[in-house]
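Hi support team,

I submitted a single chain yesterday and got back a structure, but I'm not sure I'm reading the token output correctly. Could someone confirm the output below corresponds to the sequence I sent? I've pasted both exactly as they appear in my results page.

Thanks,
R.
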Amino acid sequence: MSSRTVIRGGLVITASDEIHADVLIEDGRIAALAASGTPAAGTFSAERVIDATGKYVIPGGVDAHTHMELPFGGTFASDTFETGTRAAAWGGTTTIVDFAVQNVGHTLREGLDAWHAKAEGNCAIDYAFHMIVSDVNQETLKEMDLLVEEGVTSFKQFMAYPGVFYSDDGQILRAMQRSADNGGLIMMHAENGIAIDVLVEQALARGERDPRYHGEVRKALLEAEATHRAIRLAQVAGAPLYVVHVSAREAVAELIRARDEGLNVFGETCPQYLFLSTDNLAEPGFEGAKYVCSTPLRPKDHQAALWKGLRTNDLQVVSTDHCPFCFEGQKELGRGDFSKIPNGLPGVENRMDLLHQAVVDGHISRRRWIEIACATPARMFGMYPKKGTIAPGADADVVIYDPHAEQEMSAATHHMNVDYSAYEGKRVTGRVETVLSRGELVISEREFTGRAGHGVYTPRSTCQYLN
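Hi R., thanks for writing in. Yes, this is the structure output for that exact sequence:
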């Protein structure tokens, strides 16, 4: 049985175009577009018609950086693949790329299989995986080739977290050399973890134990230094590089320099760095613990460099690094010792709305909103044009977005499985109304109509910005 849907009368916005058009969906894919009111649009017929008059019709968001059920700091991220993907859908995101973890002493395959087991049958939207490489050895390097062949085409390494995920420069260079050969993309958490650990130890010895010191020891210069080092190692290896969660203007400057030299270096930032700051880390009592993440929040005057980087395309992607821990019982593990606060913020449900607010505020254009939240992450990680656009042949991952609705962000109304909102009380203009994933209604006029298990695993091709 063929199933057809027509979305009528909305303003279709992609990374490249804006047009008042009707969209025909057939069997889970975009079948055709036609300018609204034209004879061609008049030929579109379907059993389901969605009126999008006065609304935006945009591609479903692609969040290329999430951590559902991540083990960290003696606990687990509070969102499961079921709760996290449902919350993502509520926020207009229809594809996530999560991180499977290789533990030291284990193979990449064991880590990937474990994450498949967590996600399979539980996701409300489509999903894919990056691979965290924690243990670089000859077997790991061979496995990287196999994973690229089967659609896991990006590998994350950490210059931070010694004793957990950390790789030294030699291990990083070997992995980069391998990715230069197999077409994979190295994603880098760029902070000098060895130096940071010294500063943590010294701060605690001085009795500096409150959450705000988390931001003070993880210095912007140590993010910039690691970013510079990662770029040069990638240059030596002849490999592309994607730097995750860029937060500091000094790190942006390193990316700009590398891109001006013609290097295949890309940068991602996150809403928390655009909208929050060290003011939040310094909130009274233990409230600042809610905002502990790494890289850390920076002083507000760093935000201008991030917005500029997004406008000039020196930063290409906004992902969430969604890694929620409840305030009660999880963030509280670090009372009296900021270094024991689990690192991570909730945000998978907030990204599309916060970036629309950036459009309202004049930081970015509507098309740039779609570019950094949908099209570029899909291209960067080998899913375009199946994901990230509205065009014939693309998956029918479509959001009907009300640009005039006002909402107040709050833990009382969000759908993430976490007991606080990082944006509590923030008023924004714009709200998701209806979401389709591969043509199926997941959110219908602000009601969840999706189901666990609708979302399917999506193998990826290699980065589409590289030859």
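A quick pointer for reading it: The longest helix spans residues 220-237. Let us know if anything else looks off.

Best,
Support desk
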